[in-house]
Specification:
The complex is a heterodimer.
Chain A (H helix, E strand, L loop, with lengths): L1 E7 L4 H10 L6 E7 L8 E3 L2 E3 L4 E10 L4 H12 L7 E7 L13 H4 L1
Helix pairs in contact in A: 1-2
Chain B lengths: L1 H19 L5 H28 L32 H23 L5 H24 L4 H5 L7 H19 L14 H20 L7 H29 L4 H15 L8 H26 L7 H19 L18 H31 L6 H6 L1 H6 L9
Helix pairs in contact in B: 1-2, 1-3, 1-7, 2-3, 2-4, 3-4, 3-6, 4-6, 4-12, 6-11, 6-12, 7-8, 7-9, 8-9, 8-10, 9-10, 9-11, 10-11, 11-12
Classes of the chains: A alpha+beta, B mainly alpha.
Chain lengths: ~110, ~400
């Protein structure tokens, strides 16, 4: 099993969810995060207080998936999140040791979907 | 009506300041501003009003004949608002007395103990505000006798609070994380606060006419024009000098204009009001963006940089633009006759600024000896809301 973490631009979330749904991938966790990559962030100015190179708003999408469906997830995220400009984001793939459904106690791939 | 408008300005001020601090300290700002209303209000009816507006003793103080509102009834006081009940004049003035110490909160936000604040507020009201109000506004007050003109509180409110704020910044010292003090945590609240202040200011200046009619109209108009021109000045300075117009800049210019026109609103023509606001916006811009950074004192929310500087300018501006053609109870300033009024205003500024600064400096030292001024380093890091009040304004989970 794999655990996919994708950092994307906030305004691409709807497209990403749509693309994942088209692939019948419906389980995900979404959170708001702050981050920066090569985009160094903008300097914010509040009267005499300057905040240089601030962190930018991003969205994190997390999906747990079977090994054989990994590239469906990655391709769907890229389809939804791509704009061609710096700041589109990154996808990280982790090995997932175990997955347990809280309600039934099922484990492994049966608990994934 | 006006009293209610001015009262609204203290919660407005609380929101303005609250949005500017870090989220862990917003409630402490509210507590300080709103408790100031309550305890200074209590002090006002017990003896503060009497000290300020009681029958004069030696040009310096009002004595205690009105203590506990003795002799303050529904019948008008012929010297103070002859067309309204004396009780109303008392409560209108109360709103000024309570918001002034709340202004000083801006200087020591995020690091003062609540107990220290309460003690300071009551002592300050008694020793700084009440005498100053007496000197400038009471029949027999020596600055009033000398001819100083302060329509709604440039001296009594803005200079006193501003200079006290400077004393506070120096005695209390910088925040420990200075200069990493964080951006405003919620500018939207600052906008809301500024809107309430703007609205309430019509009561602050307009109501100071103590009647409804021509004079209050003049004050109302001047208030609005100075707000607008102050905002425009700061926004354009931001735009040209710092590359971007900012919301906080707009609000700061707005407040600077409003503060500056406060002493002048009932004495000058509308065009003068426009000019006063614009200059205030520019002066305060430099005071905050250039002078404060260079001198390195931590006046957290620019109470001195905006109220002190704008108030001083406004009081002096009365000496330039006052004209009896709009208010026969005023006088003529430099542009309408000679320099005498300007000199009088200058003296009034000097007396009030020095008095406020020195007394506040001493009071802060005293309060430090009695209860200690600052929270501990750990408490400052965790935040005053949790450590002083065991509350959180924004519960993040559930």
């Amino acid at each position: 099993m794999k655990y996919v973490v994708a950092i994307i631009q906030p305004d691409r979330l709807d497209s990403v969810i749509e693309a994942l749904t088209e692939e019948e991938i419906n389980l995900m966790t979404v959170s708001e995060v702050l981050g920066r990559g090569r985009q160094k962030g903008l300097t914010e100015v509040y009267r005499s207080h300057r905040e240089p190179g601030n962190l930018l708003r991003k969205i994190k999408v997390e999906v747990a998936i079977r090994d054989d469906r990994l590239w469906q997830v990655v391709d769907a995220v890229r389809r939804g999140a791509y704009t061609g400009t710096i700041g589109d984001g990154k996808i990280f793939v982790f090995n997932l040791d175990e997955c347990i459904r809280i309600r039934t106690g099922e484990t492994g791939e049966a608990a994934l979907a | 009506m006006s009293s209610a408008l001015v009262l609204l300005m203290t919660p407005g001020l609380a929101l303005f300041y609250g949005g500017l601090v870090r989220r862990k300290n917003i409630l402490s700002v509210f507590m300080q501003c709103l408790m100031a209303v309550c305890v200074v209000g209590l002090q006002w009816v017990l003896f503060g009003y009497s000290l300020a507006f009681g029958p004069d003793h030696g040009g310096v103080i009002g004595g205690l004949s009105y203590a506990a509102l003795h002799n303050v009834t529904l019948a008008p006081n012929p010297s103070y608002g002859p067309t309204v009940p004396h009780l109303l004049f008392m409560v209108f003035q109360m709103m000024f007395a309570v918001i002034t110490p709340a202004l000083i909160v801006g200087a020591f936000a995020e690091r003062l103990k609540f107990s220290a604040f309460l003690l300071f507020a009551v002592l300050w009201a008694t020793i700084v505000y009440d005498p100053l109000a007496h000197w400038v506004w009471a029949v027999g007050g020596f600055l009033r006798n000398y001819g100083a003109l302060d329509f709604a509180g440039g001296i009594v409110v803005h200079i006193s609070a501003g200079m006290s704020a400077l004393a506070a910044a120096l005695v209390v010292g910088r925040r420990r994380s200075y200069p990493d003090t964080g951006p405003p945590h919620n500018l939207a609240l600052v906008v809301l606060g500024a809107a309430l202040l703007w609205f309430g200011w019509f009561g602050f200046n307009g109501g100071s006419a103590l009647s409804s009619g021509g004079l209050s109209t003049l004050a109302f108009v001047n208030t609005q024009l100075a707000a607008m021109s102050g905002a425009i000045a700061w926004v354009f300075l931001d735009w040209f000098l710092a590359k971007r117009p900012t919301t906080l800049g707009l609000l700061s210019g707005l407040i600077a204009g409003l503060a500056a026109v406060t002493p002048a609103s009932g004495f000058v023509s509308p065009m003068a009001g426009l000019a006063i606001g614009a200059v205030a916006g520019a002066l305060c811009y430099f005071s905050v963006m250039v002078v404060k950074a260079k001198l390195g004192y931590d006046d957290s929310l620019d109470a001195f940089g905006i109220h002190g500087v704008a108030g001083t300018w406004g009081v002096l501006a009365v000496g330039l633009w006052a004209t009896v053609s709009f208010n026969s109870h005023g006088a003529n300033g430099l542009f309408h006759s000679g320099a005498h009024l300007l000199l009088v205003q200058f003296v009034a500024v000097l007396v009030s600024a020095v008095y406020s600064f020195v007394m506040s400096f001493g009071l802060f030292k005293l309060v430090d000896k009695l209860v200690g001024l600052r929270v501990t380093e750990d408490e400052e890091r965790i935040g005053l809301d949790l450590t002083q009040h065991r509350e959180s304004a924004y519960t993040s989970l559930g």
